[in-house]
């Protein structure tokens, strides 16, 4: 049974909470975890996106799979429970290059493409990115705390940190 105040966000998923509580997701390799936080109300949201833009597919049945549609839906979910867009800030983690390739093609680096797309979309919505832990070649597990807006990041072989 899931703790009411510690909510798990799956892959290609998003959740929002009111203070107090925590949101967490596991398995961020090339995926990006996007935490949004209203600094006044402490309403928080976390999305776990897998791909940069929904335009790459015709049948976009899961909007949380993509940075463009996932971030927009997450903002809407937060506003529905009282967040104010002008008070929302963001933190991101993930976007790793999990597999090495002898051919250095940008299309193969989905992690970097996810990070770039995430930043573009946040910028389009005028949401400041205040901290990030992205890139590298290792996975991450993150937990976002609605009390203080801190993101806890745990990695294998690269320790833990707060941003």
TrEMBL record:
Its EC number is 3.5.1.44. It is an enzyme of class 3 (hydrolase). One of its GO terms (biological process) is chemotaxis. Belongs to the CheD family. Keywords: Chemotaxis, Hydrolase. GO terms for molecular function: protein-glutamine glutaminase activity. It catalyses: L-glutaminyl-[protein] + H2O = L-glutamyl-[protein] + NH4(+). CDD domains: CheD. The keyword Hydrolase applies. Probably deamidates glutamine residues to glutamate on methyl-accepting chemotaxis receptors (MCPs), playing an important role in chemotaxis. This is Probable chemoreceptor glutamine deamidase CheD. Pfam families: CheD. The lineage of its organism: Bacteria, Bacillati, Bacillota, Clostridia, Thermoanaerobacterales.
